[in-house]
């Protein structure tokens, strides 16, 4: 699905040199690369505070801790996402409330969001799934009306631009009270291990979060709040510092590959290609097809694997239907779109090193199957 070795080969001398210098100083934790990357990312995102941490799941949990959410508070997120989003809500003894997504963009359905709000609702977690932003203008308006926090799960969309109806542009993840991301190797901005970050323009929240990531310490060995240990290490920060200036180019390469796929499938009535919303650029963390119900999706999945073509189903089971997150309050009719998407989606190889020849081979195999 990705070609991390091919990507590394383009930046090998810089990476090797940066790693060697860290090995020579043994400054593995808290080295200058961490502060350097933090400042670079603040500039790139045009956000006041970036707080690096150990992974994207921690980032979500720490954001919720920083906002002071309390057991019993309801947090609304989507039924169609990676489990990390809902997992941390449950771990903090908050009450996850899952809502359906839009058929066209795979992102939070605004009508479903409105319907799910109760007096206990405290926060909304839109997920910018597969690389494009949820309808943040609508989310922010609803949050303002009901006095709710907004936490953007930006693990899949770093680098995407959101445009408000007044023409104002903002980077994904910097619109809500707080945004989070993951630097897992296969993400659009990936390191060579685990990593994550939290972004915010709120000075007080940033201060609280800086303590929480470091055992609740604001002064060495004085623990004011219960925190966690969540750090980005120097080696990972060095990789990210080298890769951040390349991120826009990486996104462009993904967009070019996406266009190749979409053009190639344009005349196949059994395949629906990803739709790009007016208000967001799409950085194609995933390139996800929707197949007509007449296509045996699971057979196509196997057919492609047999030909040596990686492909994946993101996601095969809705979160509300997972054993860990079942809740008797849920009603199947409220998850029609997610239930349907789980049956018809198929994600194709998508990365920065795809060549047209490879893509043509993939396309031909799919079109042959969907004849
Ligand atoms: C990858 C991902 C995460 C979790 O990131 P990790 O770094 O793997 O913890 C959270 N949310 C979404 C939507 C993701 O895709």
Q: Describe the biggest sheet?
A: 7 strands, mixed
Please give the number of β-strands.
14
* Ends distance: 24 Å
Largest sheet strand order: 1-9-8-5-4-2-3
CATH fold-type name of the largest domain:
Aspartate Aminotransferase, domain 2
CATH domain class name of the largest domain: Alpha Beta
Write down the domain tally.
2
Radius of gyration over all CA atoms, rounded: 21 Å
User: Percent of residues in beta strands?
Assistant: 15-25%
- Give the rounded overall mean pLDDT: 97
Provide the CATH architecture of the largest domain. 3-Layer(aba) Sandwich
Helix content: 25-40%
Structural classification? alpha/beta
Sum up the overall morphology in one term.
Answer: globular
Hetero compounds: pyridoxal-5'-phosphate
**Please, what is the oligomeric state?**
single chain
What is the name of the CATH superfamily of the largest domain? Type I PLP-dependent aspartate aminotransferase-like (Major domain)
The sequence of SSEs as H and E is: HHEHEHEHEHEEEEEHEEHHEEHHEH
Query: Would you identify the regions where 5 or more consecutive residues have pLDDT less than 50?
Result: none
The DSSP helix count reads 12
List keywords for this structure.
single chain; 12 helices; 371 residues; seven-stranded mixed beta sheet; 39% helix; 2 domains; Aspartate Aminotransferase, domain 2; three-stranded antiparallel beta sheet; binds pyridoxal-5'-phosphate
